[in-house]
Amino acid sequence: MTSSSVPASPVTVVVRYFASARAAAGTEEEKVELTAGATVADAVQALRELHPGQLSRVLDAASFLVNEVAVRDRGRALSDGSHLDVLPPFAGG
């Protein structure tokens, strides 16, 4: 018996940008398609490729939320329909 290998479906992630990340990306929100098993780090790399220039610098300093939970490990896998929030450092007091 041979098993047939079915390719895994890609995942679509909704990326939401805040503050300077929004300005650098030129949009408030977008859907990004990633390969199955993609991680937060993979998503960040895809965003760098989609928006070369100023967003890359913002991403270096940003923190991220996945489905409104802070990400401590960028190796965290993303599932289809996840929301990835890009939060640049905020100043204030």
Apparent shape: globular
Span from first to last CA?
66 Å
Strand content: 25-35%
Number of helices: 3
Topology as a string of helices (H) and strands (E): EHEHHEEE
Structural class: alpha+beta
Give the fraction of residues assigned to helices.
Answer: 25-40%
Largest sheet: 5 strands, mixed
Q: What's the gyration radius in Å? A: 15 Å
* Regions with little confidence, pLDDT below 50 for 5+ residues: none
Q: Numbering strands along the chain, what is their spatial order in the largest sheet? A: 2-1-5-3-4
Number of strands: 5
What do the pLDDT scores average to? 91
What does this structure look like?
The protein has 93 residues and is an alpha+beta fold. Helices cover 27% and strands 26% of the residues. The protein has 3 helices and 5 strands. It has helices at 20-25, 40-50, 54-61, and strands at 11-17, 29-34, 63-66, 69-70, 83-87. A 5-stranded mixed beta sheet has the order 2-1-5-3-4. Strand 3 (63-66) and strand 4 (69-70) form a beta hairpin. The protein is globular, with a radius of gyration of 15 Å.
Short characterization:
It is built from 3 helices and 5 strands. It is α+β, with helices and mostly antiparallel strands and 93 residues long.
Strands, helices and their partners?
Elements: E1 11-17, H1 20-25, E2 29-34, H2 40-50, H3 54-61, E3 63-66, E4 69-70, E5 83-87
Parallel strand pairs: 1-5
Antiparallel strand pairs: 1-2, 3-4, 3-5
